[in-house]
Amino acid sequence: MVEEKTIVIGNFIDLKESDKFDLSSTLRLRARSIDQKRLWASKDRSAEFMGDIWSLFVDPEKEERIKTVLHSVCVELIENSVKFGCQNHDYLIITDLCLKSDELLVYVVNKSEPSMIADLETAAHLVLNTDDIRKLFKRKMKEAKAAKKKGKSRSQLGFVRIIMQNVSLAWQIEIGTEIAVVTSQAKISLTEKDA
Predict the structure, then answer these.
(1) Do residues 42 and 35 lie in contact, with contact meaning Cβ atoms separated by under 8 Å?
(2) Residue-wise burial string across 10-46, b where 16 or more C-beta atoms lie within 10 A, e elsewhere
(3) Using an 8 Å Cβ cutoff, are 182 and 170 in contact?
(4) Alpha-carbon gap, residue 79 to 76, rounded angstroms
(5) Using H for helix, E for strand and C for coil, what is the string for the chain?
(6) Cα–Cα distance between 145 and 17 in angstroms, integer?
(7) Potential cystine with 107: which of 75, 93, 96, 151 (Cβ 3.0-4.6 Å)?
């Protein structure tokens, strides 16, 4: 039997503090209402839409970078939600974007099977605790190529790609007896030199 608990990985900022944000928006995708192929395609369009819209709210000098980074982050996190969502349930993939004066926070919430949480925890701790993200990227690329030769497709490169763009990640995982609610958070700084 699965023990009910909440796990926090990284520096997670609770979305319930949304009154502290200057601007926020929400996009909801109902997994069951879109066939799997269309849902898969919609992640790119949804991410592109959010990148286009949200880049308008930042300093014009940072617009192109934010558009690119936001698109990339949203694609990776929505893709994980589609891949690891509860396939036997109708569920929402909720993407919240929240702007503060110095940072843009992306939250992607979905439901997953509790049995999948251990793999998520391992992947999350691996990327957060690495001293050399580029070295980890190369290792994961080699592992992905080796897995592909064996007919497997789990690359675990998404989190690595996000962190390589100077974006910090965190998670809140609420594990119930039948469902786990996973909230992934990406924090994009708007004050960095290259931001």
Answers:
(1) no
(2) bebbebeeeeebeeeeebebebeeeeeeebeebbeeb
(3) no
(4) 5
(5) CCCCEEEEECCCCCHHHHHHCCEEEEEEEEHHHCCHHHHHHHHHHHHHHHHHHHHHHCCHHHHHHHHHHHHHHHHHHHHHHHHHCCCCCCCEEEEEEEEECCEEEEEEEEEECHHHHHHHHHHHHHHHCCCCHHHHHHHHHHHHHHHHHCCCCCCCCHHHHHHCCCEEEEEEEEECCCCEEEEEEEEEECCCCCC
(6) 42
(7) 96
146 HSE (CA, 13 A, CB side): 7
Give tens-digit pLDDT for 55-93. Answer: 777 777 777 788 888 888 988 888 888 777 776 777 788
**Residue 66 token pair:** 């934010």
Are the C-beta atoms of residues 175 and 117 closer than 8 Å to each other? yes
User: Are 186 and 169 within 8 A, CB to CB?
Assistant: yes
95-107 residues labelled b (16+ CB within 10 A) or e (exposed):
bbbbbeeebbbbb
| pTM over 0.70, yes/no | yes
Going from the first residue of the chain to its last (195 residues), give the mean pLDDT of each consecutive group of 10, the final group possibly shorter: 83 78 80 63 69 73 80 84 75 85 88 88 92 91 83 77 94 91 92 56
Neighbours of 131 (CB within 10 A): 6
